[in-house]
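HUMAN: I'm a chemist; might I ask for a sequence paired with its structure tokens?

ASSISTANT:
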Amino acid sequence: MSLIHPTAIIDPKAELDSSVKVGAYTIIGANVQIGAGTEIGPHAVIEGHTTIGENNKIFQFASLGAQPQDKKWRGEPTRLIIGNGNTIREFTTFNTGTVTGIGETRVGDDNWIMAYVHLAHDCVIGSHTIFANNASLAGHVTIGDYVVLGGYTLVFQFCQIGDYAMTAFAAGVHKDVPPYVMASGYRAEPAGLNSEGMRRNGFSSEQIARVKDVYKILYRQGLGLEEAKAEVLKMAETAPELAVFKNFFDTSSRGIIR
């Protein structure tokens, strides 16, 4: 039995592993590559210069690889790259990158991306994340590993959300969210630590306690940002779980929520 429904339209130039399943009325364009074990539901559209890895589950009505929603785009062959083991639910929209950005939109491995999520051009998504329904990212957003975005979260362009961070329902992220921090509110503010997420991912009580000390430095001691950053980086020299703060501070461009 063929794994590709007879009503699917697949460009002859597309490259699909022989084990890929394609549902009814799905359309796959010429510059698409799809790896082994990936399943694509009915009525999906996968276009553009899009590469999808192995063992992904893509549900019906997903739109992947469409041109960026950027008026500066002039048809350049920018890319969408999706890793392995992702679940991508209904009505999701992932756009390709732009030449004024990094040239590609990237999604890592083992992400759980729920219905109506939008990833704009030049976004970089880590691995093991959860994006609840209707979370939307503007262009050039970076999301770390093990991040959880609450439903209807909106992330402003060029923002960064660090590893293991979490946003509440309908959070409006307009500045960078440090690793491990929970953010909530229409203009998102720090609301404690994602301690439960840390426990679920195997952090010890001692490690969580050290992260709590970082939170106090950033938000409870009245320090200026540069002074607080220096204190955190000093702690990170002897605590591996704090090493993520160095890269976060080095790449932060919008300032952090405070």
User: Anything to note?
Assistant: The longest helix spans residues 205-219. The first strand starts at residue 9 and ends at 10. The CA atoms of residues 32 and 217 lie 47 Å apart. The chain has four helices and 27 strands.
